[in-house]
Amino acid sequence: MKRFLCILVTVTLLMSLMAGCGADNAAKVDQKAQATDNKAADTKAADTKATSAPAAKLSGKVTFATNRTDWVDTKFKDWTAKFSAKNPGVAVEVEGLKDYAKIIKTRLAAGQAPDVFLLMPGDFKKADYPKYFAPIDDLQLGDIYLKDFCSFEGKQYAIPVGLYLTGVIYNKAVFKKIGYDKFPTKLDDLYAACDKLKAAGITPTTVLPKEPWPAQRWTDYSAPLFGPDNLYDAMMKTDTPLTADSSIGKACKFIFDMKSKGYMEKDPMSTSWDSFQKDFAAGKIAFGKFEQWLIPSLVSNGMKPEDVGNAPLPADNSGKLITVSMPDWSAVVNKDSKNLEAVKAWYKYMFTDMYAEMENAAGCVPAIKSASNVVNLPQIQEFNSYNATVVDQQFASDDAVATMQKAQWEMWRLGADVGVTDDINKVFNAYNKKWADARKK
Amino acid sequence: MNLSYKSQRKLVIFLFLLLPITMLAIFSIYPVLQMLKYSFSDWDGISREYNFVGLQNYTNLLGDKETFGLLCHNLTYVISGILILILGLLLAVILNSKIHGRNVFRFIIFMPFVMNSVAVAYMFQFIFDFENGVLNKLLGIFSIEGIKWLGNATLVNFSLSGVSSWQYLGFYMVIFLGGLQAIPKELNEAAKIDGANSWQVFKYITLPGISTIIELAIFLVISGSMKAFELPFILTSGGPLGASDTFVTKTLTFAFNLQSYGPATALGIILLLIVVLFSLIQQKFMSKTGGAYE
Question: Is the ipTM of this complex over 0.85?
Answer without folding.
Answer: no
